[in-house]
Design brief:
With 220 residues, the protein is α/β, with parallel strands linked by helices. It is built from 4 helices and 11 strands; from the N terminus they run ββαβαβββαβαββββ. The two termini are 19 Å apart.
Length: 220
């Protein structure tokens, strides 16, 4: 796969991305969020799952100084076209393109028809995983070569399971949310420790009160 994927995680010390009720703003501090804007700006596309959009209503733009001439594509993995027409994403298409990407099909009509959100269909080829199909179509249709994957946990797990995450940028806040918090990574369906997905740490930096850890996929 020619598309490179960076997974961004903003978690508590115990690896939770939200409380049980789905509250996640703001786990990390302003310094970490500033770095996230810089990292968005360095990628062709920002990618999230639809549950994250429904929970947080994010805009997912890269707000840096000086402002970008062209924003990264903002892509939502959204099998059933549930992206609300009144969401910040759908309402900010003047600022940069937004794509709702489905690996299945769409309802014949939906609220997005009245917006400028683009819709892309990415049915997997025989034997191909959904994340592979999504990246293949994003590259073919939009020329996207670098993806900044911002979760949530289910989407992160599906890209990890498919072996598609090249780097992790992990921002860890000094707080604990406990078992009832939402995990940063959903199920990986591993049977043994030998099957664990391994990464090598390539950097650790304090950012305000938080810790920013950088990892690359380890082949060994
Ligand atoms: N702290 C942080 O940085 C951060 C970042 C992101 C999210 N969050 C939090 O995480 C929570 C949402 O995470 P989540 O794990 O519940 O959901 P998610 O990963 O954001 O979205 C999951 C949904 O995406 C759709 N989807 C489409 N293609 C998929 C694929 N290949 N793999 C997996 N899902 C796919 C599915 O819905 P359809 O079948 O309807 O398409 C699925 O239910 C929210 O509470 C949010 O606040 C926190």
């Amino acid at each position: 796969m020619a598309v490179s994927v960076t997974l961004k995680l903003a978690t508590s010390l115990d690896g939770r991305i939200a409380t049980a009720s789905g509250e996640s703003r703001w786990i990390t501090g302003p310094e970490a969020r500033e770095e996230v804007h810089r990292q968005r700006a360095a990628h062709d596309a920002v990618l999230v799952g639809i549950a994250t959009v429904l929970a947080d209503d994010p805009e997912l733009t890269a707000r840096i100084d000086p402002p970008l001439k062209r924003q990264p594509w903002r892509v939502v993995l959204d099998r059933r076209s549930r992206l609300p027409a009144h969401s910040r994403l759908a309402q900010s298409t003047d600022f940069g393109a937004v794509v709702s990407l489905s690996t299945g099909g769409w309802p014949q009509t939906c609220a997005l028809d009245a917006t400028r959100v683009e819709r892309l269909l990415a049915p997997p080829l025989p034997g191909e995983s959904e994340p592979h199909a999504a990246l293949r179509i994003m590259e073919q249709a939009l020329g996207i070569r670098t993806v900044y994957l911002e979760g949530g946990g289910q989407v992160a797990a599906s890209f990890l399971r498919a072996g598609l995450v090249d780097r992790i940028e992990w921002f860890r806040a000094p707080m604990l949310l406990g078992q009832e918090g939402r995990p940063a990574i959903g199920a990986l369906a591993l049977g043994a420790l030998t099957q664990a997905l391994r990464f090598a740490r390539v950097g650790v930096h304090p950012v305000g009160p938080d810790l920013w850890e950088r990892y690359v996929r380890s082949e060994g």
